[in-house]
Amino acid sequence: MPGVLLDVEHVRHYPYDELASHILGYIGEINEEQLQEARGDGYRMGDYVGQAGVEKAHERALRGTKGARELEVDAAGRELRLLQQRDPASGLNVVLTL
Which domains does the chain have, with CATH numbers? Predict the structure, then answer.
């Protein structure tokens, strides 16, 4: 759509890098089957979800909510003003004991 720019950033913080990565799991883009299973939960194609391990088991708690900004820009793409903004919210923390 002309005049629309979408900039998406997905972030998960792993404080110990690869330590216990096989238990913690990972996130990846939602697939069609997962999307059908999660129907009504607000997921859309392009969303990232837990694919394995704790990431998958606690997906809904870890998920958080998306943020968005709607801007008015000029013909050169320079921001003129902020029309509306919805701040993102972090998901819950999961505390594990190994």
Answer: 1-98 (3.90.1310.10)
